[in-house]
Amino acid sequence: xxxxxxxxxCFTASFQGIVDAYGVGRYQEVNPAxxxxxxxxxxxxxxxxxxxxxxxxxxxxxxxxxTENRPAVKSAQNEIWQTFFIGRYLLLLMGxxxxxxxxxxxxxxxxxxxxFSSGWSVAAMATQSDWSDAFLAQHPLLALDPNxxxxxxxxxxxxxxxxxxxxxxxxxxxxxxxxxxxxILGVTHMTFGVVLGVFNHVHFGQWHRLLLETLxxxxxxxxxxxxxxxxxxxxxxxxxxxxxASAPSILIHFINMFLFSRSPTNQPLFHGQEAVQSALVILAxxxxxxxxxxxxxxxxxxxxxxxxxxxxxxxxxxxxSGILDSSDxxxxxxxxxxxxxxxxxxxxxxxxxxSEVLMHQAIHTIEFCLGCISNTxxxxxxxxxxxxxxxLSEVLWAMVMRSGLGLxxxxxxxxxxxVPIFAAFAVLTVAILLVMEGLSAFLHALRLHWxxxxxxxxxxTGYKLSPFTFASEED
Length: 475
Fold this sequence. Notes:
- Belongs to the V-ATPase 116 kDa subunit family.
- The chain is mostly helical.
- It has one domain (11-119, 154-294, 354-456).
- It contains 17 helices and no strands.
- α2 packs across α16 (381-405) and α16 (381-405) packs antiparallel against α17.
- The protein is flat.
């Protein structure tokens, strides 16, 4: 197999390093690095979404980018600084994407900002309800009813409505939103990885894998978890404000889908839902034996057909072309199964053991089918890390800045007290929320790319090109 050479520049080198740390790609294999330039900072930003924190990270990386040609910056010997400097463009995009997701979450150092007018009207609720002085004295918490005319004016133009930051059910609302968002992003990311495998199969001439592997994988993934994404989006588009108590549960529907049952208390989302769910589960189960037996049986049939023709039927030119330009697959792109069922070596038929090929395919089938479940659940880390980051920001603000702002009402006392308090807030923000939380989100984004995304199409079993040179190596 030829070595792999991927040309990079100062911008793409850090992203290619992330991929190469997993494994160097085989010769002419699809390289995940160009897609990682967008997906890695975005998944990081989903877990790190905050306008203030993202802006600090962006400015830090921008300073390194603007001074990257200075000799003092290049020659710095500190290992931590060198690590940051090598990944300066990665940090730049991570900070930029974090600012974007921070606007979506409407969080800046855990504080909401009212860029646009809120879609909820407290005045309309007050004028159309019996909120007397006695009622307000007895009820410290008030509920806004969207069924009352004029209370809900429409969705917020961009991101989360700032009025949710004042609600006691703010955390419950964000939990539901971020959990479903994580499932949608995860299924989309994994489906994109399976689709990238199509380019590998087409380039290497492995046409049988399109029908016997890629198609069953897409049917299995989209038939089960793509349907879950459809349920989430479909329920989002429905208006359950007037019948919130009887709103259907997607989780119950998804569990009943595998049990071929229904819950009398859980209303269907659309007509004929049970029939659709049963058909999708049966279709997904049918794809498992196709994925398990399709490729081994095809390779066994191809091996037998070539054995019956025998080596005598080949011309010398055909032997060379069979090695250099195989009609079925490029030799560089063969897996172990194709190598055993492919062209003969040194004029002799290569040994083909069906049981070994079946074992390899069984491992792949089990890994993919079970991985669809575990990998989808693994993307829930986007929800968990985002929630943890938001809560840490809230705790830091409440314990430090809010306490400092409430120390004294006199201007002199507040000015003197806020200097050390703001210094402590800045140090804790950088140390905990930027460095520790940033490293945690980075590692989780790294795992999502290595395990959940790249294993759908990327083998990473190649080796880098080492150019021949006459220069002597210096000890």
